[in-house]
Amino acid sequence: MPTKKFVIIGDKLLSSETISAAIAEHLADDWKITALTFGPDDLGELDSELGRMEAGGADAVCAPDEVLEEVRDAQVVLTHMCPINTAVFDAAPQLELVGVLRGGTENVLVDVASARGIPVLNTVGRTSEAVSDYTVGMMLSETRNIARSHHAVMSGRWEKDFSNSGSIPEFKDLTIGIIGFGEIGRLVQQKLSGFHCTVLVYDPFVGPSQVPEHVRLVSDLDSLLATADVVTIHARHEIGAPPILTADKLALLKPTSYLINSARAGLIDMESLTEALADRRIAGAALDVFEIEPIPPQSPLLELPNVTLSSHIAFDTAGFYTKSPVLWWEGLNNAVSTMSTRSLVNDQAVDLEKLRMLNLFDDSSRQTIRL
Model confidence over 233-252: pLDDT tens digits? Predict the structure, then answer.
């Protein structure tokens, strides 16, 4: 007879049924899964809800009443986009673990969890392959005018003249600068290796032994910005933090350089970037993330001839969704079996032994979900 409660909160993008099926296969018999759904059916509206939390934190969006009711006697909550905010924590006195089926944890009040000694486990690597693929595609699209040529042909024009005509590069001649050398940054570098370009990396948390021999680790951001022909950014952005690429930093870019952002809009001073593009102080930019999504029709970016813009879809692959509960469970397994903190967001504030004591697994061996 189940005596402990595991609440799963899915949504239109990642259903609670998909999550539950993956988790239930290896969950111990004394756990009961309660599956709930958060948010609207419209994907644009759901994305807007996430955008509000990315900008204002988990308290920017209300959790459904059903969630507040069901977490009252829950020990574990696993969410995709639903906020785990002040109201949820206050309603869940027995809560011992919060899981997030995303890399980012903007929809969870991690500080509150830490203050209460509750571990928060995110999903490391779930977007890495998809976003790194897309990032390289954005580089090609912007530098080689792929999207602009497609739009022209579809509009009945056989366009040959573009904003960078006369200086269109070949990748083997380029220096690519990667800001942030985590999961995604490393994969971007690996995928660029086939183009035989020069790669620079800036990451203050990475040492020389952590980058391949043919990749040059630079010690300051300014030198990367002043040297690179293409700059792609793959760093975390904390809510309320200033951008990494300020107006002063953007001014260091060469007039022939390109900027790629598939991470977070807040990493870049978007007003200064728009001005730099309009004034042709940089050659172009490819952007998949924006301060307001959907991008407003009056945005000056929409008037520029030297941008490639997409609707925040860098993560969107079939495998991205189905792999999420798999990767989360494996991260939990690693935390329990090896005391790994790789998936533990608040490892400085909690005791990993608490995860062991939950006895989530259906036997004493390490359990791994397989698709």
Answer: 999 888 788 999 999 999 99
Single-letter code of the amino acid located at 140? L
Beta strand 198-202 pairing with 216-217: parallel
Which neighbouring-strand residues pair with 284? Answer: 258
Task: Give Cα 267 distance to the centre of its chain.
Answer: 12
Average pLDDT over residues 165-188: 97
pTM given for the model = 0.83
Based on DSSP, count helices (H) and strands (E) in the chain, helices before strands: 13, 12
Report the chain's C-alpha Rg in angstroms: 22
The pLDDT tens digits for 69-88 are: 999 999 999 999 999 999 99
Tell me if 321 sits within 8 A of 315, measured CB to CB.
no
What's the rounded Cα separation, in Å, for the pair 357 and 107? 26
Domains of the chain: 4-126+320-365 (3.40.50.720), 127-309 (3.40.50.720)
